[in-house]
Amino acid sequence: MSVTPARMEEIFEKVKNWGRWGADDQAGALNLITPAKRAAAARLVQTGEIVSCARELPVQPNAENPTPALHMMVMAGDACDATGVPGLETAMDFVGVAFHGMAVSHIDALCHVFVRGQMYNGFPASDVKSIGALRNSIFVAREGIVSRGVLLDIPRLRGVPWLEGGAAITPDELDAAEQAQGVRVEAGDILLVAGGRDARREKEGPWNPVEGGLAGLHPECALWIRERDVAVLGADGVSDVLPPLGVEGWPLPIHQCTLVAMGVHLLDNLMLGRLSEACARHRRWEFLLSVAPLRVDRGTGSPVNPIAVF
Amino acid sequence: MSVTPARMEEIFEKVKNWGRWGADDQAGALNLITPAKRAAAARLVQTGEIVSCARELPVQPNAENPTPALHMMVMAGDACDATGVPGLETAMDFVGVAFHGMAVSHIDALCHVFVRGQMYNGFPASDVKSIGALRNSIFVAREGIVSRGVLLDIPRLRGVPWLEGGAAITPDELDAAEQAQGVRVEAGDILLVAGGRDARREKEGPWNPVEGGLAGLHPECALWIRERDVAVLGADGVSDVLPPLGVEGWPLPIHQCTLVAMGVHLLDNLMLGRLSEACARHRRWEFLLSVAPLRVDRGTGSPVNPIAVF
Amino acid sequence: MSVTPARMEEIFEKVKNWGRWGADDQAGALNLITPAKRAAAARLVQTGEIVSCARELPVQPNAENPTPALHMMVMAGDACDATGVPGLETAMDFVGVAFHGMAVSHIDALCHVFVRGQMYNGFPASDVKSIGALRNSIFVAREGIVSRGVLLDIPRLRGVPWLEGGAAITPDELDAAEQAQGVRVEAGDILLVAGGRDARREKEGPWNPVEGGLAGLHPECALWIRERDVAVLGADGVSDVLPPLGVEGWPLPIHQCTLVAMGVHLLDNLMLGRLSEACARHRRWEFLLSVAPLRVDRGTGSPVNPIAVF
Amino acid sequence: MSVTPARMEEIFEKVKNWGRWGADDQAGALNLITPAKRAAAARLVQTGEIVSCARELPVQPNAENPTPALHMMVMAGDACDATGVPGLETAMDFVGVAFHGMAVSHIDALCHVFVRGQMYNGFPASDVKSIGALRNSIFVAREGIVSRGVLLDIPRLRGVPWLEGGAAITPDELDAAEQAQGVRVEAGDILLVAGGRDARREKEGPWNPVEGGLAGLHPECALWIRERDVAVLGADGVSDVLPPLGVEGWPLPIHQCTLVAMGVHLLDNLMLGRLSEACARHRRWEFLLSVAPLRVDRGTGSPVNPIAVF
After folding, report:
1. Cβ atoms < 10 Å from Cβ of B46
2. Which residue in chain D has the smallest CA separation from A96?
3. pLDDT above 90: residue B89
4. Rounded distance, CA C156 to CA C165, Å?
């Protein structure tokens, strides 16, 4: 199932949501998450079990993580009384991270990717300045993102512990996973697609995703995502297949079609292994999911720790 | 209602939860949030309205915020195609912050404060090293904190737009606020106490909290919080009265009694103005609250964006 | 001696070095420092006394320094053996700084300032991208800057401990200081102009330079600097008068005329108090001066610690 | 020429300078650089040619450099007029680095390494706190280090382009290099030992120094360095042989003997290829050398750009 640049153009145009929520809209498919949608999602909660979908913030460089986060103490126990205030003993730290990349669980804002100089809703790349994104920043999601989460567990469907690098998940497989799991992705959902990355890492250690590859969605899945009106898309990889499939001009077709055409925010590098287990245990692949980006004005995204509640 | 050092000692001993959940426990009062508690909290959701309780990450220095966060672009629209990959156009940024202080909405881990060299459950300050906290770090909350949130709105109780700096909220007022609002704080709750800081800032601009002061809880409230078995305590200030009340050796008695004695995590510098409005509008001061610290191993806390769902 | 925008235009055009060292030149007046010039500067050395011209890197916020440097330990003595290598005990730290501003001793690269979208030699501001300066970066000075340094001590000339904020040093005063000190500024020199900032700070504590002001060079001095073919200009302030003199479109005329028109690098926020003393003691206001910017490709400058050798 | 732990103990004790410059001394062998020494060094200058001994600050991760420096624009040309001041157009950046490691040219302060919990002059490791080094910090070198530099070019001596990883340079070779070059290392000198690392990198690309190794000084050289009273020791590697020679408890014997026993500061990861060429061209292996650490109080070292003047 190969894809030509012409077909990618066609898909890109077909899935476009530009203008759908007004010419000035910067929230994109987040508009699909209505209060009623959230209230319904909350009603899914039964046992109250929670599962984080984030990986530990990586602070050591490794193959998948060449530019780790900075975590440094400002004051530790050895100097806890150096506060200048008698009786005040404290420890403090600093956390900093260029979170885009292949190892930090993060959300991509709609200003993170451009196609031929344009981002979601036709705004120009020049709106994303060296002093920050004047449009389509993560600040549109500052109230948090709470909705129904649905996990489609592709390794489970295929009966393998994980998908190999370069594997492309097809629309048919999304349908098949829905059926196998007895769940249907609906408008306003946060769709998480598991490829078994955690299982592979546990077994084989970390690898460079560009070289060792990552499973991802076949570009044709963009149409599926648009049809179902997914609000946010997430993955244990980066939703796109790595290494890229080689369609000229479309190195990350899912990023390009979701962030730019549809206005669908992405969740990258999630930890979905334990969520998959929890879903299987509960025999239920839907849950209340809450994503809380840091309120960074002009930001291109944020590290996040999405929480699923069963 | 003044407090002596001797009385503080007494309160500190009375509210201690050391050993309550085992000699090795590092989660403290988070143990009070059971799955059942969470499930009940989810059942509170009615309209699906969400309200963030976090302030914008401050990136400019001002009176309340002398050491702002770093937010810098790694690559902006002007260089979005400098990726080395044809067709890949992207923007990325870096966020870094020493989040403790007076302006960033954050959670304090149980390793953030010590009393005479000890932190929660008797662990020594020396466990918090220059390479990070080996015990009581925020990593205990890595799955997220989801529970019933309760807001006690003290300006509303007093009939004022905000409490002045140095104002001490008494246990009686907590009782009175409960009655006025028709809500009762229970075991495992996340208790948020509003002092009107947002309203004051909006009117008067930012001020230095140490000089201009902040309203906070009277030290006697520690007993109330322990009695009710609050799991997490939050405020638009820092829960403590500023400038300190002047009890020798107890500069931040609420920090010292919650983090150290009780093992109650703190949420500092929240934005509670809009939450107060939402509660008043719904005439309901309880809600589902979700707090998702970044998964920083060995961290002394995390910037957070707590989300209330009505 | 007031200045109109028209006069500033005239000065700016008169002092321009664009094209003087070729259409592609990015080094500007650094071209004036020949090996022979350096060798002559080395011959000035007599006693071998050294004096640093830099201030301590500021790590605490204060009035003149709202965005201090980050200095954090990565590993301190309390964890010095946590290296994973038996016998290896070490301590390490991190230093980070946005060095432009009013408190860090630093050098400004020629890409630091633009006039109507152009920088030195007519290169467009768009050459300075979010990924760094593609032209006129500090990398042109990567071999270091070593030349004759000359100090003109204006408080000494005026017989005052320091010049008040807003004071403008005139070309006549530069001449007068030369004569009083028995020194003459020549082509390729690094000219340091002292205004007594250190003395004022020591007496009155730090102040906000924009409000409390800084002494600086009157805009007419740009002609003097060009005539003498100064290679690099430095000051204990920022060479410009603060608050700005109010010439429309020319908020920092010296910055604009040196960096942009002449291609003269600037040294800002130096510590010149001890250098002034040393010069007076030696009765000699010339010395070997060495400035060693960090080799940051694409950088807009660098923190520096210039060393004078007598 | 293998070395036992007992022999290392003996060497360590023999080269100790503890107490030599007083019980409170924190400057160590920098005391050997007298004003007269500096004046003599300045008299070495003939042509005025300058050569930087620093590498470009690494901002991209690679094999030898897993934790690169941060270099980010705060404001670039695309937003140069977003200053709030009419006519003020500027670009600014941020530089940050944990400079110890294998790729940044830096100076090690005497608080960087400990032997059994002690650093130079017997001060305890506990003096190096999470809030910074209270003793033996780089601040002792805040006036800069200016002295005679001497390069011993070992690849030249051996007639090879570079020394292989793991190669140990012996004291005899230091003597032989002196003779071959017609230079003698004397008290107060800054000794630079070239191993050809730049040449190897240029040919073979960057490698992980721990795996691919680095040439360094045999531990017996510590005695030679002490005998000659070298003030500062530098290398294109890290002065020590990598991988370590395997003497139990002495993973980095040169670091341990210089920093801890002798109080000799180290310059690591220099770029000595061009300096070697310049020395050969001038047929002179001595020069004026100036090293200007950033004035970081409590720092464990500093990135530097040492400048040689011929």
Report:
1. 14
2. D70
3. yes
4. 16
Which residues have C-beta within 8 Å of that of residue B89, sequence separation ≥ 6? A113, A114, A115, A116, A117, A125, B80, B81, B83
Contacting residues of D for C147, CB less than 8 Å apart: none
Cis peptide before C61 (omega within 30 of 0): no
Q: Which residue has tokens 């020069």?
A: D287
The alpha-carbon gap from A67 to the nearest alpha carbon of chain D, in Å, equals 7
* Cα separation, D185 vs D286, whole angstroms: 9
Residues of C in contact with D55 (CB under 8 A): 295
For A94, which of C72, C77, C78 is closest by C-beta distance? C72
Q: Which helix (H) or strand (E) holds D177?
A: helix D171-181
CA distance C285 to C192: 10
The answer to whether D269 and D238 are in contact (CB under 8 A) is yes
The closest CB to that of B79, out of C74, C79, C131, belongs to C131
Identify the contact set of chain B against chain C, taking CB-CB distances under 8 A. 61, 66-68, 73-79, 82, 126, 129-131
Phi, psi of A157 (to 5 degrees): -60, -45
Q: Pull the structure tokens for residue D87.
A: 């006519």
Subunit contact B143:A36, Cβ cutoff 8 A: no
Calculate Rg over the CA atoms of chain A: 20
Q: Which of A60, A73, A83, A126 is best to mutate for the C interface (most C CBs within 10 A)?
A: A73
* Separation between Cα atoms, residue D236 and residue D254, nearest integer Å: 14
Q: Do the chains contact at B129 and C68, CB–CB below 8 Å?
A: no
Closest CA to B108 of B267, B222, B260, B299: B267
Contacts of B94 in chain D (CB under 8 A): 70, 72
Q: What is the H or E stretch that residue D282 is in?
A: helix D273-282
- Mind listing the pLDDT tens digit for each residue in D122-147? 999 999 999 999 999 999 999 999 99
D51/chain C closest Cα distance in angstroms: 6
| D171-181 vs D221-228: helix crossing angle, rounded to 10 | 50
Interface touch B297/A93, C-beta < 8 Å: no
* Cβ-defined contact of A292 to B306 (cutoff 8 Å): yes
Q: How far apart are CA B258 and CA B15, in angstroms?
A: 8
Shortest alpha-carbon distance between residue C84 and chain A (Å): 14
Token pair for residue C106?
């630093």
Question: How many Å apart are CA C91 and CA C93, to the nearest integer?
Answer: 7
Contact C46 D39 (CB under 8 A): yes
What string of pLDDT tens digits covers the 310 residues of chain A?
A: 689 999 999 999 999 999 999 999 999 999 999 999 999 999 999 999 999 999 999 999 888 988 889 999 999 999 999 999 999 999 999 999 999 999 999 999 999 999 999 999 999 999 999 999 999 999 999 999 999 999 999 999 999 999 999 999 999 999 999 999 999 999 999 999 999 999 999 999 999 999 999 999 999 999 999 999 999 999 999 999 999 999 999 999 999 999 999 999 999 999 999 999 999 999 999 999 999 999 999 999 999 999 999 9
Token couple for A120:
């979601």
Is residue C134 within 8 A of residue C300, CB to CB? The reply is: no
One-letter amino acid at D264 equals: V
Between strands D232-235 and D190-194, the pairing is parallel
Tell me the shortest Cα–Cα distance from D176 to chain C, in angstroms: 30
Interface touch B295/A55, C-beta < 8 Å: yes
Q: How does pLDDT run across B125-141, given as a tens digit for each residue?
A: 999 999 999 999 999 99
Give the residue numbers in C contacting B (CB under 8 Å), as ranges: 61, 66-68, 73-79, 82, 126, 129-131
- Rounded Cα–Cα distance for residues D286 and D275 (Å): 11
Backbone angles phi, psi at D65, to 5 degrees: -145, 70
Chain D environment of B78 (Cβ under 8 Å): 76-78
